[in-house]
Design a protein that fits this description.
Layout lengths: L2 E3 L4 E4 L1 H11 L9 H9 L14 H8 L3 E9 L2 E9 L4 E6 L6 E6 L4 H8 L15 E5 H12 L6 H8 L3 H7 L4 E10 L11 E10 L5 E6 L14 E7 L1 H11 L3 H9 L1
Antiparallel strand pairs: 1-2, 2-6, 3-4, 3-8, 4-5, 5-6, 7-11, 8-9, 9-10, 10-11
Length: 270
């Protein structure tokens, strides 16, 4: 169920609820498949009997309708996949976080100075208590070998890393690192960029990174296949290369993902 906490300017909404709000702003027809979501919004007091949106939600709705930057954070872990992120508009920034197994996400306002912190918290970026670690360690392999190790893990057949590596033709070090896997996460920024930016088919510029959080084995940055990865781009023969990294470096990489003021300003002038 959606809900709103006016005192803290936060609201819980599913994608279907957001779709209803967007259609109402655009004065569009609500299709039958969204009728239940519309009724839930009315029951929660987010819509009145005339389908008018409560005033407290106008900053969020306005930002969702015309975002300048969209951040997406996908975390894959034991509880499944969660989708979180942020939207940056003209006057407001909102972050949203998903809980495993729940349809709704919690939307809360954020200040520009706290955006990196909020994104880092979504992936549980934390200090790595590892002294004397070689942060330049690289593991080369293939996506086929990676898939083989993960398949063994998912089937509950993960024994000694050496045995798993031999069974699927993977480097032993890859099996050792994945044996400590907590989660994998991908963070992507998208905005209307200039032609010189790397763009998607819809004309959006993107910047992205993919990371493995492997507990006592630390953080590993996936350098190949390089992000952003498009559908059909990767197969089992594709090269895999991961490099051990630190929480400090990841903090800077997250910061660098966010387009600077000049890039955003150029999109507003376009």
């Amino acid at each position: 169920m959606p809900s709103i906490d006016a005192a803290r300017r936060r609201v819980r909404l599913s994608d279907a609820h957001v779709s209803v709000l967007g259609l109402l702003v655009e004065e569009g027809q609500i299709p039958d498949e969204l009728a239940h979501s519309r009724a839930e919004l009315q029951e929660a007091g987010i819509l009145d009997g005339d389908d008018k949106i409560v005033a407290d939600l106008y900053p969020l709705v306005a930002t969702l309708m015309e975002p300048h930057v969209i951040a997406r954070v996908e975390v894959t872990g034991p509880g499944g996949v969660t989708q979180s992120g942020a939207v940056v508009g003209d006057d407001f920034i909102f972050t949203h976080e998903n809980w495993p197994g729940e349809a709704e996400s919690e939307y809360v306002p954020a200040e520009p100075e706290t955006l990196v912190w909020a994104l880092a918290r979504m992936v549980d970026l934390h200090r790595d208590f590892t002294d004397g670690i070689d942060y330049d360690e690289v593991i080369p392999s293939t996506m086929g070998a990676f898939d083989g190790v993960v398949a063994c893990m998912e089937a509950g057949q993960f024994e000694e890393p050496e045995a798993v590596a031999a069974a699927v033709g993977a480097p032993v070090r890859l099996a050792e690192v994945l044996s400590q896997l907590n989660c994998m996460w991908r963070m992507t920024m998208a905005w209307k960029g200039a032609e010189s930016q790397q763009t998607l088919s819809n004309g959006l510029a993107v910047s992205s990174l993919a990371v493995w959080d492997c507990g006592i084995e630390g953080y590993w940055l996936r350098e190949l296949p390089a992000e952003p990865v498009t559908e059909g781009q990767v197969d089992e023969s594709s090269e895999l290369r991961v490099r051990r990294t630190s929480a400090k470096e990841l903090w800077h990489l997250i910061t660098d993902l966010i387009p600077d003021g000049a890039q955003i300003a150029s999109t507003r002038q376009a």
